[in-house]
Amino acid sequence: MGNRTAASNGWPPRVVMRKAGGLRTLEAALIRSGLGPVAGVDEAGRGPCAGPLVVAACLLAPKAYDKLAGLDDSKKLTEATREELYPVITRLALSWKVVVIPAWEIDSLGIHVANIEGMRRAVAGLGHTPGYVLTDGFRVPGIPVPSLPVIGGDAASACIAAASILAKVTRDRIMVQMDQRFPGYGFAAHKGYNTPEHTAALNALGPCSEHRRSWRNVRETAGLRPLDPAVEYADAVLADGLEDGRVATDAAHAG
């Protein structure tokens, strides 16, 4: 009886997921339920063994959606397309914030904690307070407004896709600048990921100050003591989860 009474009073409110244009479905449903404006949060650079982690939050104005029809998961877009969308997003967004977490802080906190902290900082740095926050992939405790983790969020939500592009473009630009400061590693090409070219350069030159000492391959190259296997495994699981009973290949410290 109690459930029927609650339902007849219209509480809790139902979020009806209707089809909307492009990637607007999640945002449209939340806004219709009075939970807007909606901010999206995403990161770039969780897997590389060098360079910073970059986290972005983006709060899109309602009219921005129609002008950003080309939004998609940043990894599916070419670098040129991301560069074209970046100034459009920053111009049309109601508010946006990019947070850069350097390699030394990643080493100090661990990649998962650094990621969570970056998302908190990005949301806190928005000029407008969102009514709801959509995060890509996992729950972020400590955000002072309601939030929802969205698996594959940058391919399912416009505001997460916008944040993804802001984070990716910012990080790519940082890595190009880093290539000039630390020639020989090829940062402009591989952006700090563990490509064969990067591995060869790391073995030949040793790590620079932008390499993450908490990554196994960097520690081994630098001749540092290995991390406690339990700590290493736990951080990797927190960062990327388990995949078929194994730590995902791009997990933190997988090297």
Notable traits:
single chain, 255 residues, alpha/beta, 5-stranded mixed beta sheet, two-stranded antiparallel ribbon, 7 strands, 44% helix, disordered C terminus
Structure in words:
The protein is α/β, with parallel strands linked by helices and 255 residues long. The protein is built from 11 helices and 7 strands. The strands form 2 sheets. The protein has a 5-stranded mixed sheet with strand order 3-2-1-4-5, sandwiched between helices. A two-stranded antiparallel ribbon has the order 6-7. Helix 4 crosses helix 7 and helix 5 crosses helix 6. The radius of gyration is 20 Å and the shape is globular. The N and C termini lie far apart (57 Å).
Query: What's the number of extended β-strand segments?
Result: 7
Rg (CA only): 20 Å
Shape: globular
Provide the residue-averaged pLDDT: 81
* Fraction of residues in helix: 40-55%
